[in-house]
TrEMBL record:
Organism, as annotated: Streptomyces endocoffeicus
Keywords tagged on the record: Membrane, Transmembrane, Transmembrane helix
Membrane found in the keyword field: yes
Tagged with keyword Chaperone: no
Protein name: Sodium:solute symporter family protein
Localization, UniProt: Membrane
Upper taxonomic lineage: Bacteria, Bacillati, Actinomycetota, Actinomycetes, Kitasatosporales
Length: 556
């Protein structure tokens, strides 16, 4: 197992620990407050579909702002440079807009409780069960990433043994989700979002002052790594070499379409937040509201990774003893005074807990409703499934503790996570998008497309890439290619199988396929939703235009 360097130990004092303890007290307080609203399984799993758009929107972005974002994207910044901004403006915003404008009416209008349940309505039980199992496995693996990252950070920064950090954070996540269900997770994610910002903004500002601002940052990295390292699109021509090991085609298709749309439109850890909104308009606005803070996250996540590379030029090499994952802890140990240090540690723990809570809360929903209720114990009273959800929450936390050690073999956890997404999310998106726009797609085509897409991605990564059968310059480049392979393989299999299998009657696809409408989907706007700034189309186009403008200063 890789550990953070011991030299990163922080000089924490009583003030720092007081801030940390206060945060944990507030987190549990939110769980107890939310407990009063949990009376049914719908309350536990989807907050009774009662939350306003601004709450679900902030929770949507906070659920993603875990280890994946903080350590992973900072590590990507230190390893790959400014190319990392593609994960935001190509690899997130368009997919979030597509989810809000195109897919949420299908999800919310069909009243499903999970993403796999939509496949049950569209394709039938085979695809439903397969996608439920795949998602459950992926959720536990990703929850383990957050626990592993948190444990090594806390051990290095505070001196806590890894098992103590894992048990403490795991028990707190278990406590507030078991008490208050999704409502507790979402309101804590809103709190965690602001705590994370309060931790990362000072880190970025102080770091930039230390190295001479953005001008000093660009000059230093240009001198050490060349001009392409500080340009979003420099050196991405087909056949050109760059640190990312990808060209513009694999960036746009592999990351911008397959991985991005696969993650943001089918990952239930995100979609669950939108499904808990109070009406269809609020559900549509959830990912659109989240898109605006999301596009500015690179300034407080990617930029610190670049700053760490300037301050420690040998990071990620054996000469330094530091991994790319050490970028954020390195800055914390070098730049922050006590008090602010406690806030930064609290922000990191908040990020890890938000990421883990998002995956655990989605895991308990899918396992309880889509596996246990649908295939194992049918027709039980609602209270039985509410209790099952709480038990499964504990199982998910314990399983996440076990899978935390799988992530330890990756020095850049973003590489590991993108590998998981190419295996699990991309084939699911392929099946979704084809079934959503092609009425003829059959149940057998959905099942075999999902299975073959997943297997094809694994073959590309484990055999062709790791076996050196084909030459791909980097792990991330391999992930982009795996995503394209998964989507193409799944799509080809679906198109090949469909003509030889029987389709469902068109009337049974109402509200499940584009161009059809289920009763109640086209609901009138709620009072106050007529305002222009609450219209999903306006928010969506504004987000796309702003994301395109963000590229300009990073491409010059």
């Amino acid at each position: 197992m890789h550990y953070l360097a011991e030299g990163l130990r922080l000089p924490t004092n009583a003030l720092d620990y007081t801030i940390l303890i206060l945060y944990f007290v507030v987190v549990l307080g939110v769980g107890f407050a939310a407990r009063a609203s949990v009376r049914t399984s719908l309350d536990f799993f989807l907050s009774g579909r009662s939350l306003p758009a601004w709450v679900t929107g902030l929770a949507f972005v906070a659920a993603n702002l875990g280890a994946l974002e903080i350590l992973g994207m900072a590590a990507n910044g230190a390893q790959y440079g400014v190319y990392t901004v593609h994960w935001y403006w190509v690899g997130a915003i368009p997919a979030m807009v597509f989810l809000g404008l195109v897919m949420m009416p299908f999800y919310y209008g069909s009243k499903v409780r999970s993403v796999p349940e939509f496949l049950l309505h569209r394709y039938g039980p085979s695809s439903h069960l397969l996608s439920s199992i795949i998602f459950s496995v992926a959720s536990v693996l990703i929850a383990g990433v957050n626990l592993y990252a948190m444990a090594i950070v806390v051990e290095a920064l505070l001196g806590w043994p890894q098992w103590v950090a894992i048990v403490v954070a795991g028990l707190f996540v278990l406590a507030y989700i078991t008490l208050g269900g999704l409502s507790s997770a979402i309101y804590n994610e809103v709190l965690q979002f602001f705590v994370i910002l309060a931790a990362l903004i000072p880190l970025t500002v102080v770091g930039l002052r230390r190295i001479g601002g953005f001008g000093g940052l660009k000059d230093s990295l240009t001198a050490s790594h060349g001009p392409n390292f500080v340009s979003a699109w420099g050196g991405t021509g087909i056949g050109s070499d760059n640190p990312l090991g990808a060209n513009w085609l694999t960036i746009v298709l592999g990351l911008g379409f397959c991985l991005s749309f696969g993650y943001w439109t089918t990952n239930f850890a995100e979609v669950q937040r939108a499904l808990s909104a109070k009406n269809l308009s609020a559900a549509q606005r959830t990912p659109l509201i989240a898109a605006f803070p999301k596009m500015f996250i690179p300034l407080i996540v990617v930029v610190p990774g670049l700053i760490a590379l300037v301050m420690e030029p040998d990071i990620g090499t054996e000469k330094s003893g530091l991994q790319y994952n050490d970028a954020i802890p390195l800055l914390m140990s070098e730049l922050l005074p006590n008090g602010v240090l406690g806030l930064a540690v609290t922000g990191l723990l908040a990020a890890f807990m938000a990421g883990m809570a998002a995956n655990v809360s989605s895991f308990n929903t899918v396992f309880t409703n889509d596996i246990w209720r649908a295939y194992v114990m049918k027709g039980r009273p609602d209270g039985y499934y509410l209790l099952t959800g709480r038990v499964v929450t504990a199982i998910g936390v314990l399983a996440g503790m076990g899978t935390a050690f799988i992530a330890s073999s990756f020095s850049n956890i973003m590489n590991y996570l993108q590998t998981l997404f190419s295996f699990f999310n991309v084939p699911l998106f392929c099946v979704f998008i084809i079934g959503m726009f092609w009425k003829r797609a059959t149940a057998a085509a959905g099942f075999w497309g999902l299975l073959c897409g997943t297997v094809a991605a694994m073959i590309n990564y484990f055999w062709l890439y790791l076996g050196d059968v084909i030459a791909i310059p980097s792990d991330q480049g391999a992930n982009f290619v795996s995503a394209i392979v998964a989507f193409v393989a799944g799509g080809v299999v679906m198109v090949a199988v469909t003509p030889f299998t029987r389709p469902r009657p068109v009337e049974s696809l109402a509200g499940l396929v584009y161009g059809t409408t289920a009763p109640g989907v086209a609901e009138p706007p709620a009072p106050g939703d007529e305002a222009w700034y609450r219209r999903p189309a306006v928010l969506g186009w504004s987000a796309l235009i702003l994301a395109a403008l963000c590229y300009i200063p990073f491409s010059l």
